[in-house]
Amino acid sequence: MRKGALSLTTASLIAAAFVAAVPVFEPTPAPAEDITVIGEAILATPTTVAVANAVADTTSDCASTAYALEKWRLSGTHTWSYNPAGAPATVAPMALTTIQRATTNLTGGQNRCGTRATLAISQAYSGTNTKTAQISPTAACTGNDGISVTSWGALPANTLGYTCVYYKTSTGTVIASDMMLNSTKKWFTGNVPAGCTDSFDLESVVTHERGHTAGLSHVDQTTQARQTMSPRTLACTTYKRLIGSGDLTGLQALSTKA
Length: 258
Ligand SMILES: [Zn+2]
Description:
Elements: E1 35-45, H1 49-56, E2 76-82, H2 92-107, E3 121-128, E4 148-153, E5 159-168, E6 174-182, E7 186-188, E8 199-201, H3 202-214, E9 232-234, H4 245-257
Parallel strand pairs: 1-9, 2-3, 2-4, 4-6, 7-8
Antiparallel strand pairs: 1-5, 5-6
Helix pairs in contact: 2-3
């Protein structure tokens, strides 16, 4: 769904939006009135029959050209840091490596279709720090310090991850983008755990959230369930680690705008 100021979601839909003028940020000062901040979520979905059926139908993986764009886009390199505090024990040892890989999956256009992609976006990991993503437990964007941080913390119960993007309103250029991962959910990396029922794949969620940072919005859950930018992730699946053809089409559209 498209987001607007203070729009809220229905139970089946997705995005919370928040628009605010931010008085101060560093290290690249700009007029406060020229900054917009938007938040985007990815929701946890139990292994219900309806969603599972949609996910099992892989025919749209590489046939879809569906995408939706946000009002912003990355220009150049997205430099981000990581705060490991609060990472669930099950994934803490592998979390950074997994988040790095997912970020590269997105910016490199790594897809399930074998399509080579050259995109005008890139990313750079700048190390760990002790800052946390400026995102509240109710999934609201709370400020802009100009530093892009990925960290763990409290989020609404069915929100796996939440990304806030700060961009120049006049140009759409991203200034910074934080990501919060829900520290209270069950997560896995690597193979789907034996007996998995309600655990979620960290790489899939981060690939999706990085799509928001790059400038991709959600596509329709019902018809585009296999695209990484559909708003829900099914427990115990890994198909969103790499993007689909619609997601790639969207990234290519953003690249030609860049
Ligand atoms: Zn999302």
